[in-house]
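Reviewers of the previous submission asked for a worked example of the structure-prediction workflow described in the proposal, so we include one complete record here. The input consisted solely of the amino acid sequence. No template or homolog information was supplied to the procedure at any stage.
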Amino acid sequence: MYEAVGGGVDPTLPGHPDPYPHYARLRQDQPIHWNQAVGGWVLCRYADAVAFLHQHGGVSRAAYIDGLVAKHGDGPILRAQRRELAFMDPPSHHRLRHLLGKAFTPHAIESMRPHIERIVDELLDRVAVRGAMDVIADLAYPLPSVVVSEMLGVPDADRPRLQAWVDGLVMSRGVVRTPEMIEAGNRSTEAFTAYLHDLVPRRAASPGADLLSALIAAEEGGERMTQEQIVGVAQTLFAAGHATTRNVIGNGLLALLRHPAALARLRAEPALIGSAVEEMLRYDSPTQSTSPFVVMEKLEIGGQAVEAGQSVSILLGSVNRDPAQFPNADGFDVARTPNAHLAFSTGMHVCLGSSLARLEAQIAILRLVQRMPKLALAGGELKWQVNGRFRGLEALPVTF
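From that input alone, the workflow returned the following structure tokens.
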């Protein structure tokens, strides 16, 4: 049984079928509270989260990794995360983000649409004659892996190995990190890093029309990305990008199937797929919490004093259901507007890969509901993964 508020429980309630009543109690009783399991403050209200994320200076993600190193040792997973954009502070963060922006332009992402449509259709063609499928295993799980592998120019034969490593990387990224999670991340990171350090020089010597080649060639003010930075970007794409896309497809389709009127409206008005995916991201967020930030100088959040050296994390699953921001916050409305959810955060650390995740989800979900007009839940108890900050189903059996 989970506690009603704070205390020593992981605020994301990994594996719980419905954490949202718990989040509602937190917003009501302890919207800003110290969580012993996290070892820091947790923000549960939308307004507090936005105000904190739009601060200029005074907080550090790099210091958070320093704290994990002090606790768990300087192993492969934490060394790798030091190179990731999400755990960098200015000015390094700004330089790397500008360089990455050269490869993640809106035009570059939109140009991938026909390619992603082909992959989705191929995956659905494989199950079309069955009359049933597991949406996670047959579509949501392989899609981002294939897309990212092809983006980076990873040979087809290597993809099964990379997928196994990704699972370990995802497992290690909890807001509450256990020694077992760190060890799983260390094993996967060591193998994955070695593989990428071999692939990057080969791609540099023989560039192609892929993202890895674009990252190698990206230049800003005469500065290029180092091989360590490129490896870090590739790992982030596979880990965070894979988990987010997989979960928004699974969580989003489940929401549609549990709300038949919304599903019928989307089928009748396919142009709503953009707003529908935004609502899926808000309603059952694929990432339930940000990684913590360390406060470098004393500040006040919503009337609560936070001391220098303490950490703050945002409970995204809660802020995206905050009725002070979203009318009928527990309702599911595929035409909701405005919908300024924080599923991809906001401010300096807004997710750089959000456009790609959105595009994959839009294509996968719309193709699925259009091609399978009798789509329905197959029945049985649904189980949710227990893996860090991410919320997603282990399986989603459907019939069609």
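The radius of gyration is 20 Å. We consider this example representative of the routine output the project will generate in years two and three.
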